[in-house]
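Backbones bend. Shown next:

***
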Amino acid sequence: MDAVSDDEGAGAFFSAAGSPELWKFLEALPAGVTLSGTVASIEPFGVFVALDEGPAHPVFPGVGFVPIPELSWTRFEEASDIVRLGQRVTCAFLQFDTWNGEARLSLRATLPDPFQAFADGTAVGQALEGRVTKLVPFGAFVEVARGIEGLVHVRDLAPEPVRAPEEVVRVGDSLAVVVTEIDRERRRLALAGRDAR
């Protein structure tokens, strides 16, 4: 369980089960339906939303809950980078979380996926310019379009073999790359340094 501790979760479960009106409302929601509400609380693990429809939650600040991965298609540091307290939001209903007695929601499902739009206009072998955003032991992430990052594996960073990406690039560097793979399903982009080809 990711929203609350075990003790809190047990209390939430029994409280929700003891609230037939809430239970009935949540059970009747079809997957994919859009629900509107107001951001009631921003937590490190997600965002609670007070829904316009249905009863209030007996424990949480809102019946709706948006987990961190469902807030945005693009990478972000904190939930407050995407939403603010009191903001009106429209989300897609994912499922009834019977343990917490809440509606699991997705904000990003109501927005176009920028990766799919990028993939529509990009081909394997295409040359791009990007900015290095993150270094990891196995390579460098490069942003090639707004919110679109791809991985350049350490073996594909330079013409000569390197052991660590820090040997040839730094965060913030501009890098000429070539698209080597576009995985639409997993939303992954593989790149190679143009000079390494």
In short: The radius of gyration is 21 Å. The chain has a mean pLDDT of 90.
